[in-house]
Structures are given as structure tokens and as C-alpha cells.
Amino acid sequence: MQVSTPAGAKFILYQEICEQLHNLLVDERNLVANAANTAALLKQCLPDVNWVGFYFAEDEELVLGPFQGRVACTRISFGDGVCGKAAAGARTIIVPDVSKFAGHISCDPRSRSEIVVPLLNWGKLRGVLDVDSENLNRFDEDDEEGLESVASVFMTSLASDDLPDLSEEAALG
Ligand code: SME
Fold first, then answer.
1. Which of 140, 141, 159, 169 is at a distance of 20 to 30 A from 13, taking alpha carbons?
2. Where are the domains of the chain?
């Protein structure tokens, strides 16, 4: 599914992506399988995107997960690059022009703008979703909102073993 995005249509595009993603992931809880299909769906559906992928948190580092695009760096320390800064602050970062972002890590020299969204599980950082474009200024607040929804659908799909045990709170409640 390749969809063009005239002004105002991104909201609908991301709604469709989230619906399709939910249907893709609903019967599978494996982290790698669901990350791989999420990256593939985004690469198929989002126009003007040359790299989509995951980095997962391990101690104070991000380690490369499933992705679509050219080969990428394997490990990024928290605080380094766009991914490491998004991870350290647990917040989305939009970079309109990567050449103007101090510390940007260039994996594919064709990438000119980028958005990185944190993957949060009950407030705990589990990794980031990174999307790159060959176009300057490709990503805006609609992409931020849409990709945060995508991240939420992805995180919700994961095995319940990954979720915190809330039984104590439930018992107290
Ligand atoms: N540009 C990222 C590194 C990851 S690649 O774009 C796939 C960064 O600065 O963190």
C-alpha cells in the first residue's frame, strides 16, 4: 500500500496504518517478528522514506533491531545522535535537516531529515523507532502523533511477559 499525502491527509494515512498494523500484529507476540513487520509496513506505506527501523535499549545503549533500508550502525549510546538523545530524554525528536543537528550519526548519507520516537512500556524506555527521509523537512507534528500511535500499537502487541507485573497494585486497589 503506497499512499500519497496531500495536506491534511496524514491523519487518515496514520489511522489506516495503525489499523492495518493492529491486524498484522494481533495474533503474534514475538518482538522480532512484530518489529520486522512494523518496519516493513511503514516502509511500504510512508512516502519519501528511505530508512525505517528499531533500536532496542540494553543497559545504557541502543542496539539495532529489525529495519528496512541500507545497513546501519549497530550500537548507539544513550545521549549520542538523534536516537540516543530521544532515548535519553524519552521524547520524540524531529530533525528537519540532519546536517544542522549536532552529533547526528550518519548511517546513510542520503538521509536528510529524520524523526525518532521513543518506545515506552509503562513509562520505561524500551527502545526507539527511527524514520529517515532523503527530503529535507519531511516530518512534522502529524508524523510525530502518527508514529507515536504506531509505537503504541507495536508495544501493545508484545508478549505480556514484557509487561510489568501489576498484580500487587491490583491487589492494593
Ligand atoms: N541518524 C541516527 C542513527 C541511526 S540511522 O539514521 C539508521 C542518529 O543520529 O541517531
1. 159
2. 9-159
CB of 51 closer than 6 A to ligand 1? yes
Mutate-to-test residue for ligand 1 from 78, 116, 130, 133, highest number of ligand atoms within 8 A of CB: 130
Contact 135, 55 (CB under 8 A): no
Give the Å distance between the CA of 68 and the centre of ligand 1: 13
Topology (CATH) of 9-159: Beta-Lactamase (3.30.450)
Q: Are 53 and 72 in contact (CB under 8 A)?
A: yes
Which of 52-56, 158-162, 164-168 has the lowest average pLDDT?
A: 164-168
Q: Tell me: the pLDDT tens digits for 30-59?
A: 999 999 999 999 999 999 999 999 999 999
Q: What is the CA radius of gyration of the chain?
A: 16
